[in-house]
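Fold this sequence, please.
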Amino acid sequence: MSDNSRDKDYNENLAKLFRAENWEERAEAARNLGYIRDGRAVNLLVKALKNEKDETVKDRIIEAMGRIGHPKATMSIVEILKQELDKDLADKSRLFYIIESLMKIGDKRALEHLGILLTSCDADIKSLAEEAFECIDPNWQENLKKERLEKKVS
């Protein structure tokens, strides 16, 4: 794909993400932006995530941010994680999208927020959270022990 063609696809998908009336078109545009993997899209995806009402489109935006893998997306995804965990019944599929995206991004700032999922009653969520910890910080267990010791000392 040439740079011109890629830029054209990028711009067309951004326009659809923000202007399309149909949620399916917005979801497809978000997915396409993830496949393009252009870091320029992250700030705009963050904006779209904040303004989007459709849950499926939000999921596609989260996936796209993970696929792009830029750390700028981390805290926006963490905010969605917090919102999900504040619900009486969290959406399991949304939690999977969130964990997988944060794992792909690999930003250690996410670990503090993913930590609550390590105690999940749902074995699949717990297992994926452990996998995310291993991926983001292979020494997470040792680091956690050190941090607990430091807190006891202070």
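Residues 55 and 94 are 9 Å apart (CA to CA). The longest helix spans residues 3-19.
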